[in-house]
């Protein structure tokens, strides 16, 4: 037992010295400039043939790099694939990689080894492969580089634009033709029926004062606001153009006199409701853009939207009640859901 004590004591001193040395050694590992995602994208963006992609489906590859003191990477080996044509493409991409941030130990740059593992997704199968890597590849692929994209029929539209309007009936005796702005957020299902939230704002010059019990000066252009919901149905839907009819129910207000402070109770605001029937014709402008939206593949499409509508407006003042006609142009952004796709 006494013979073991000196050896154990010496081993303890070695361990304590090693621990102290480790605590005083600052080490920074080598890493690709731009991060791991930027490095992985170099390989996911390779334009493999259909046959090559089939061989890579759900296959994990391991890349081994030697990184010199200046951060220059040299590919030493690729594991997980043996096909010569695929290896040639991977090696050609590896030869063009940007530099790495080299490893440092106590402020001194050192050569090191770097390992990268990639799993190629199952192409055309939304549930296959690594979802994060698949999303990156989907986002980076131009629309024309897809063999096909099948839209699910579900979509979210955002509409923003302007219009001209005019009142007929009694309200036309008091308000001149004018214009306004509108915004809509709409969802549509696979059956072509949709709906959403609507808001429109108009300004029409006052021809003559409304007969109201107020001696205040009336607004020269009483602003009108419509806020409500819409239900629509696509009557014609083609690849680049569509036509739909929208039924609307809106809460309507119109400010006849200005409000003088938050506690002003003597200002005049008309209130009522307005049903409406609006036709929308829109056609695609520019190229679609593939994009992952909340974890699911989608296609963003820009449209130019032309609409015409007729809206009876019922206010709590008969002189302001009438029928509004409007014609407008809007920008429509359509976000289409995708249930199947294939990259060329």
Give descriptors for this structure:
344 residues; 8-stranded antiparallel beta barrel; 3-stranded antiparallel sheet; 5 helices; 17 strands; 50% strand
Protein model, in words:
- The chain is of the alpha+beta class and 344 residues long.
- Helices cover 17% and strands 50% of the residues.
- The protein has helices at residues 4-23, 36-44, 50-56, 84-94, 131-140, and strands spanning 27-28, 31-32, 60-67, 73-79, 100-101, 103-105, 108-110, 112-119, 146-168, 178-188, 193-203, 223-237, 241-255, 269-284, 289-293, 296-315, 322-343.
- Strands 9-10-11-12-13-14-16-17 form an eight-stranded antiparallel barrel. Strands 1-6-7 form a three-stranded antiparallel β-sheet, with no helix packed on it. Strands 4-3-8 form a three-stranded antiparallel β-sheet, with helices on one face.
- A hairpin with a 3-residue loop joins strand 12 (223-237) and strand 13 (241-255).
Question: Strands, helices and their partners?
Answer:
Layout: H1 4-23, E1 27-28, E2 31-32, H2 36-44, H3 50-56, E3 60-67, E4 73-79, H4 84-94, E5 100-101, E6 103-105, E7 108-110, E8 112-119, H5 131-140, E9 146-168, E10 178-188, E11 193-203, E12 223-237, E13 241-255, E14 269-284, E15 289-293, E16 296-315, E17 322-343
Antiparallel strand pairs: 1-6, 2-5, 3-4, 3-8, 6-7, 9-10, 9-17, 10-11, 11-12, 12-13, 13-14, 14-16, 15-16, 16-17
């Amino acid at each position: 037992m006494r013979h073991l004590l000196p050896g154990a004591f010496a081993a303890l001193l070695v361990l304590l010295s090693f621990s102290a040395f480790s605590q005083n050694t600052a080490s920074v590992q080598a890493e690709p400039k731009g991060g791991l995602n930027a490095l992985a994208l170099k390989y996911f963006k390779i334009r493999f043939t259909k046959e090559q992609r089939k061989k890579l489906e759900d296959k994990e590859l391991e890349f081994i790099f030697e990184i010199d003191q200046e951060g220059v990477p040299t590919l030493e080996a690729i594991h997980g694939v043996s096909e010569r044509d695929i290896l040639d493409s991977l090696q050609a991409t590896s030869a063009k990689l940007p530099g790495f941030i080299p490893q440092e130990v106590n402020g001194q740059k050192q050569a090191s080894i770097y390992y990268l593992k990639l799993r190629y997704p199952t192409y055309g199968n939304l549930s296959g492969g690594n979802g994060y890597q698949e999303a990156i590849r989907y986002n980076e692929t131009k629309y024309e580089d897809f063999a096909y994209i099948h839209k699910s029929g579900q979509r979210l539209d955002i509409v923003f634009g302007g219009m001209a309007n005019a009142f007929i009936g009694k309200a036309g005796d008091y308000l001149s033709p004018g214009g306004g702005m509108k915004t809509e957020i709409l969802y549509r299902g696979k059956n072509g029926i949709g709906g959403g939230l609507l808001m429109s704002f108009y300004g029409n010059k006052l021809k003559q004062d409304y007969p109201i019990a107020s001696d205040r000066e009336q607004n020269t252009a009483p602003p009108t606001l419509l806020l409500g919901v819409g239900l629509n149905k696509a009557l014609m839907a083609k690849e680049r153009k569509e036509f739909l009819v929208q039924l609307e129910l809106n809460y309507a207000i119109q400010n006849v006199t200005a409000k003088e402070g938050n506690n002003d109770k003597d200002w005049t605001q008309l209130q009522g409701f307005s049903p409406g029937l609006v036709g929308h014709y829109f056609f695609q402008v520019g190229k679609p853009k593939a994009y992952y939206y909340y974890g699911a593949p989608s296609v963003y499409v820009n449209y130019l939207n032309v609409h015409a509508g007729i809206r009876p407006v019922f206010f709590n003042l008969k002189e302001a009640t009438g029928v509004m006609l409007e014609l407008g142009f809007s920008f429509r952004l359509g976000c289409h859901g995708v249930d199947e796709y294939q990259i060329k």
